[in-house]
Amino acid sequence: MKLIELHNFGDDGFQKTERGMPSPCIGEVVIKVHAASLNFRDFMIAKGLYNPNIELPLVPLSDGAGEVVSVGNDVTEFNVGDRVMSVFWQDWNENNSNRMVSTGSDAGGVLTEYAVLPKEAILPIPEYMTYQEASTIPCAAVTAWTCIKAANIGSGDSVLLLGTGGVSILALQILKAMDANVIITSSSNEKLEQAKELGADHTINYNENPEWGSEAFSLSNGGVNLVIEIGGESTFPQTINALTIGGHISVIGALSGINVELNLMQMVFKNVHVHGITVGSREDHMELNNFLEQHEIHPVIGKTVSIDKAINEIYGMSSGSHFGKIVIDISDD
Ligand SMILES: NC(=O)c1ccc[n+]([C@@H]2O[C@H](COP(=O)([O-])OP(=O)(O)OC[C@H]3O[C@@H](n4cnc5c(N)ncnc54)[C@H](OP(=O)(O)O)[C@@H]3O)[C@@H](O)[C@H]2O)c1
Q1: Fewest C-beta in 10 Å: which of 31, 124, 181, 186?
Q2: Rg of the chain, C-alpha, whole Å
Q3: Other CB atoms within 10 Å distance of the CB of residue 78
Q4: CATH code of the domain containing 215
């Protein structure tokens, strides 16, 4: 079987490898991976910017979907032939919030034709979804879901999304299914048009309008209820400008830097709620899958490439040229 391993951090650390078929131990399943998807984290891991203490070599990528081909002796929850997707945190569930092990970082990932995962690290794929679509869910969509849940967003609420990457576009799709109002920013007018076609109510080009937060405040008639924050240093002040009184910020990333200068009085007077989000638990993921199934949401895949092009795509993620998710097709058919 073909797989890709990260051997060194930097610009040239991946190696393509061939191995024999794996077998499952107690509590494990082997999955024939059909599709995997990329997250910005995968780029950071490759460069050594995420956690320099990660043990190498590592099979990268947290997010994949495929078919169970064998199960460990004691596994009764899954059967050969089941369609499953990976779970981001292998040990975050209703019985344990002290999560330590994430797929594709602390444990081996899914950029391989056959992945061995603990049974706690997989969930069934909603019936209507393709493998490619399912591969976009474990990190980006679960994160979008927990951000939205943390702020208790519902019909008629306003949400500001920053940029048109994986998390923002999945959040847009979830929010429109909830009948929320969505304002989205981008550096590209073309991407903003695509976001409008997906239902975005208002769009702002953050390069053309540096006061995008204040514009979002006006467009939402008194401020948005939630901003999903991915920018950090260069975006946080505008994010606070965009909020209504009692509004929420779900902080997930810091693409422009981690050192933020805060106007604490503005935060006090706006009664701002700040949530740090790290994807979500198994139960969050299950709840999202039910929601997706109920609304038959098809995640937006901006680009699909074969496993031979996966390494270039991981390094290329920082260009931000994609819209929605990038999927690696690993099926051999
Ligand atoms: N904490 C968590 O649980 C969690 C989970 C998932 C992701 N994240 C983090 O969230 C961030 C986004 O992840 P992703 O997977 O969605 O990334 P992605 O698919 O690579 O999307 C990145 C997009 O962000 C936009 N962007 C970049 N710099 C920006 C800035 N300064 N202001 C506004 N928008 C900007 C760009 O959109 P345009 O091209 O439209 O301008 C870019 O295409 C990353 O930092 C990632 O590490 C965290």
Answers
A1: 124
A2: 20
A3: 17
A4: 3.40.50.720
Tell whether ligand 1 has an atom less than 6 A from the beta carbon of residue 234.
Answer: yes
Q: Whose CA is nearest to atom 34 of ligand 1?
A: 163
Measured between its terminal Cα atoms, the distance across the chain in Å is: 15
- List the domain range (segments joined by +) for residue 102: 2-136+299-329
Q: Look up the pTM and report it.
A: 0.97
Give how far Cα 302 sits from Cα of 36, 136, 139, 268, Å. Answer: 14, 11, 16, 40
283 within a domain of the structure (yes/no) = no
CATH number at residue 324: 3.90.180.10
CA geometry: angle 323, 326, 329, nearest 5 deg: 150
Tell me the pLDDT of the chain (333 aa) as tens digits. Answer: 999 999 999 999 999 999 999 999 999 999 999 999 999 999 999 999 999 899 999 999 999 999 999 999 999 999 999 999 999 999 999 998 888 999 999 999 999 999 999 999 999 999 999 999 999 999 999 999 999 999 999 999 999 999 999 999 999 999 999 999 999 999 999 999 999 999 999 999 999 999 999 999 999 999 999 999 999 999 999 999 999 999 999 999 999 999 999 999 999 999 999 999 999 999 999 999 999 999 999 999 999 999 999 999 999 999 989 999 999 999 764
305 and 270 within one domain? no
Is residue 247, in this structure, part of any structural domain at all?
Answer: yes
Q: Given the CA of residue 41, which atom of ligand 1 is nearest to it?
A: 47
Ligand 1 mutation target, pool 143, 251, 255, most atoms within 8 A of CB: 255
Atom 35, ligand 1: residue with shortest CA distance: 163
Query: What are the backbone angles phi and psi of residue 293, rounded to the nearest 5°?
Result: -65, -45
Domain count for the chain: 2
